[in-house]
Amino acid sequence: MEREISIEDIRAAAARIEGAVVDTPMSKSRTLSEIVGADIWLKFENLQFTAAYKERGALNKLRQLSPEECKRGVIAASAGNHAQAVAYHGARLGIPVTIVMPAPTPTIKVEQTEGHGAHCVLEGKVFDDAYAHAQALADEKGYVFVHPFDDPDVIAGQGTVGLEMLRDVPDLDVLVVPIGGGGLMSGIAIAAKAINPDIELVGVEAEMFPAMKCIIEGKGTITGGDTLAEGIAVKEPGKITRAIIADLVDRIELVPEAAIEHAVALLVGIEKTVVEGAGAAGLALLLDQPDAFKGKKVGTVLCGGNIDPHLLSNVLVRELVRAGRIARLKIAAEDRPGALAAITAKFHEHRVNILETNHHRIFNALPAKDTLIEVECEARDAAAIDRLVDALEECGFNVERADRLSAAEGH
Question: What kind of fold does domain 324-401 have according to CATH?
């Protein structure tokens, strides 16, 4: 039976890792507070050296190894933030680190992990394969296995996030924390309930991966899908963590993909900070269910900032589409000289920028003498494009606007 984790364990972890991880800012967002209708405080764990809170638990585990264990080395299974954390702090402490990743892991993640001095082994098609191989290597080579979330020392390390949040803002009413395997929420829950038994704890999972919620509520579930929040896309949460969360956490809520995208984009636009999908899940819930938090003092953790730049670019452009600032118009016109000039004149008149145009003469249902002109355009606000569409239609053009993405839609 695993030992019980107490706030004293978390305080000991805080002393153990002090100075080796960043004591990250806890700041109130005035703009997000106005949007949600609550006092919103953000814990910027994306500002850790490896851009995620995972360093805390990994370092707390590594710092307690015996000299013999340090000499043998450690092993972990991860293709994400846990791999970076173990590799980075293992190198700092002179501990040999092996990381097992699924074979399809993007090369950039392998290179980043090797850049911290770890030896990477690619095994299997999915995480479960890599995890099983890592455990087999641990048994064979005598490595210490560093679990990403289901380990008392790791949980205690993650709990230091909660200590810092309540140190900086002692009168928080609610903590909203993303849940994947459950290590972060477990540690924070232990710390928070010991400091303030009346504080409300709300966990957040992506709709595609409701594993912890379904386990605790005794429901069967099918998890899976291409979620933006891959950091919390866990099919099998921890055994230790599920018991802690069932005991201490008030409820677990699910957030749709579009809400996660919206949160990532708002954090870039408002807070000027880059946060991955999993790290933005807490804010996504506040934006998706503002009535549940209205008037309260709420803290949430921006738990990671490792997002692919191309993916981030897609998210930001999709947010402009949701806001109505980028649109795709399908304009039916006579296929004659001057037709396009008449259309573009209206774009100029309404100060709407044309990003791309395409003529479709064959694959459309218009008469043979007509053409379909598809225009992707951008304006400073949605109203400008609405006025442009009205002006084009007044000139006799038939305009169809491509479906807008709504804040409630997923992919």
Answer: Alpha-Beta Plaits (3.30.70)
